[in-house]
Amino acid sequence: MTGKQRVFDTFDGIKTDKLPWVPFTGVHAGKLLGLGARKVSTDTDALVQAALEVNRLYHPDGQPVMFDLQIEAEILGCDMVWSDDGPPSVSSHPLAETTEIPTRIPSPQEGRLAMELEATRRLKAAIGKSTALYGVSCGPFTLASHLRGTEIFMDMMLEPEYVHELLAYTTKVAKAIASYLVEAGADVVAVTDPLISQISPAHFAQFMEGPFGDLFDSIRASGGRSSFFVCGNATMNIEPMCRTRCDSISVDENVNLATAKAITDRYGITLGGNIPLTSVMLFGNQQDNMKTVVDLIDSVEPGHLIISPGCDMPYDVPVENAIAAEHAVHETDSARAMVSNYESTGIEFTGTLPDYEHLEKPLVEVFTLDSATCAACTYMWAAAQDAVSHLDYPVDLIEYKYTVPQNIARCREVGVKQLPSIYINGKLAFSSIIPSRDELLARIGEVR
After folding, report:
1. Which of 245, 237, 236 is CA-nearest to residue 267?
2. Which CATH entry fits the domain spanning 356-446: 3.30.70.270, 3.40.30.10, 3.40.50.300, 2.40.10.10?
3. I need a labelling partner for 43 at 20 to 30 A (CA). Which of 80, 187, 431, 433 fits?
4. Alpha helices of 277-422 — where are they, by DSSP H?
5. Which parts of the chain sit beneath pLDDT 50?
6. Predicted pLDDT at 372
7. β 270-275/248-250 pair status
8. CATH pick for 3-338 out of 1.10.1020.10, 3.30.565.10, 3.20.20.210, 2.60.120.820
9. Radius of gyration for the chain, computed over Cα atoms and rounded to the nearest angstrom
């Protein structure tokens, strides 16, 4: 059985010889050849060679061609900030000062989209018979946020008709991108929308169910499969997501896999996830990765399951850790025996926490995966910065990125359960929900 067939059969609820393994390698693929993130994000030859190395080393059943949620936004006028070890991030929002609805639909020849499609065609010819190719696209809500900025969260309350119109436009863009990806050879279109975890089920029903259902119906009509990919604590939106008629859902470490699978199983939808990206894949060892995979598999009912990293793998994940994860997916009994008595020591916290009871001024702490690479974290951090800039009294504001080992330990000491989250004077204020400016200002004012 080929890996591609494993992925397809899993989507269809057919028992497979092994569980499918889909590593979301993104710019990490460049590390395997000593190439920086920008190189594999802008050079077709480099991207293809890196993806082939992923295929050779990690034996994936499915793999992404790219994992970059900024391609559409860049074409539509957003400025980019580039990094050597991560995908670019959006730094400007063309609709921040206007409520005009754009009409432009990107063509397949524009920007880095042309590179992604050419790489897809070449990889389809090289490995497409044995490996399911995932075309990652930016979801309508996150694309709308890239264009509008954090104002979109206030718009949802004050200008709902505008949000409906903007989402109708970004859904047209997403449908066009998905059709290009399928035509180029993508087997699965992974519609990735991190900001879905930042809204309530009521807002999902009001704004998202129609556009996403339309998008997934369009992907199916074009002959492709679909994955609804979310980041953050999307637990409360798993069932609403199932009603969009997607073929699969992928979640990160903020979501309990067993809890989510109990829901997706009722709808016959395949669930993918959710090896922790930093604490396990980046900073753990081989045993940590094998034990995590085995524990995930053992926590859920069989069938309709794909094991993957929780999101785009960090650039510097040790190769041996990803190989260990693959072994645990494909040779689970062997891995289970190898780690049967293993216990992780974790990361020791060596710093000190603030004296939260005796602060001279309010302290706003934003705990993120990484605001430079995680869209939900980007907008949570931006919301905090925006709110503080509107205060007429001093406030301390700091971001703790989960990509730093001591910050992982700090999260444990503070009691942070979900990322991104905002704590004010050491107490949880907002967890996986991006607040409006007024909401955040009010909470800061309470501790002044």
Report:
1. 245
2. 3.40.30.10
3. 187
4. 286-298, 319-330, 332-338, 375-389, 405-414
5. none
6. 82
7. parallel
8. 3.20.20.210
9. 21
